Amino acid sequence: MKEETPRPLIRTIDAVALVIGIIVGAGIFRTPSIVAANTGSAELFLLVWLLGGLISLIGALCYAELSTTFPNTGGDYHFLMRAFGRRFAFLFAWARLSIIQTGSIALLAYIIGDYVSQLYPIGPYSSALFAALVVITLTVINMLGVTFGTGTQNLLFTIEFLGTLCVVIVGFFLHPSPERLSALPLASENPTAIGLALVFVLLTFGGWNEAGYISAELKAGSRKMVWILVVSILVTTVLYLLVNWAFLHALGIERMAASEAVGIDLMRATLGEPGIYLIGILVVMATLTSINATIFTGARTNYALGRDFKVLSGLAKWNMRTSSPINALMVQGMIALALIGLGALTRDGFQSMVDFTAPVFWFFFLATGISLFVLRKKERNAVRPFKVPFYPVTPVIFCGSCAYLLYSSLAYTGIGALVGVAVLALGTLFFFAIR
Predict the structure, then answer these.
(1) 266-320 pLDDT tens trace
(2) Where do the TM regions start and end (predicted)?
(3) Is residue 369 a part of any domain in this protein?
(4) Which of 179, 208, 316, 382 has the fewest CB atoms inside 10 Å of its own CB, making it the most exposed?
(5) CB neighbours of 222 closer than 8 A, spacing ≥ 6?
(6) What is the pLDDT of residue 300?
(7) What is the pLDDT of residues 338-365, one digit of tens each?
(8) Whole-prediction pTM
(9) What is the CATH number of the domain that holds 31?
(10) Rg (Cα) of the chain, in Å, rounded?
(11) Domain for residue 386, yes or no?
(12) Number of domains in the chain
């Protein structure tokens, strides 16, 4: 009987929509005010966003070499397996299943839950209930098949992209009402902290690495991964610069720095109260796009984990009819729902999930960057259709950025970070138990 394995069904345009959809989430409407408060001038503000795009592009080039040389549905998991062995790869897959991917799904779902619960409160846990409904719905959509899942992603991405362009048009061409603009607070003097600003910029750029998980399912072959990554980062960088420039044009750096929701302030100053509903819908659509893509790629790592470890072989069931890892999607969804439940017990579910996931995420991001150096030596005879330019300078810059963000995620987060580290340690014990 022929083994059921992933087939190359994903078009290049679907992959680009998937990657950009993961990157461009609600963060672009949350972080600009924080970045503005830590830069102090319009020129420096835009420069930091440009620098974030450059660092992301460098990282994408590193991933392009790994994914074209070793195309696999497991993505980072497969690279870490080849570089550091089964134990470390299992630890990463455990972290992705229990912390990184499922935590990301939960925190993104909370963004929608927090917004919708303000409009339609249904009780003390309405935010968690709406978040859970989003996870269940999108998980079922992806279980229906890769074609249906990518079709949903393309639709969400198109709506998100057009909506973001509307924000740019509003910021550049609609003059804010003087009365509404004067009602917005101005920031007091803030010390310049470029490093902290860059942390939030790079977090807003996060997600492009998910492309590695679809390298084995591309119709055009894994060599297209370079083009997919570069185009995705460039489009995102241009879009981010336009959005932030529009914010600056309409509000100015001082009002941006004082804002708690810069997108809402922009729409309120230009379109009044109806504008608030428009930006709310856009935030929801942007977040849905990111969640759908995160669910799609996260299940691929769980599939690879089950394929390599017999005790978890149930995760490696690939449905040829729908071309999707059904069991992996179900388990991922259940863990994300459990994390949403835990978040409901805290004061701020979204912030708790950020604290929970960030340190572990940046630790393994750094490890994947280091794996590029290891595999250059360990598998020097492997055919490399693409090599990262200016080696070893470019991967050193990437690894340095990851190390800094790992430090920051431990220094600036709360007890949730320690819980994430504890769950990671539990994975080590589980590995020895199943051996």
Answers:
(1) 877 887 777 777 777 777 777 777 787 788 777 777 777 777 777 777 777 776 6
(2) 12-32, 44-67, 88-113, 125-148, 155-174, 194-214, 226-247, 276-299, 326-344, 356-376, 388-407, 413-434
(3) yes
(4) 179
(5) 67, 68, 71, 215, 216, 385
(6) 75
(7) 888 877 777 566 667 777 788 888 899 8
(8) 0.76
(9) 1.20.1740.10
(10) 21
(11) yes
(12) 1
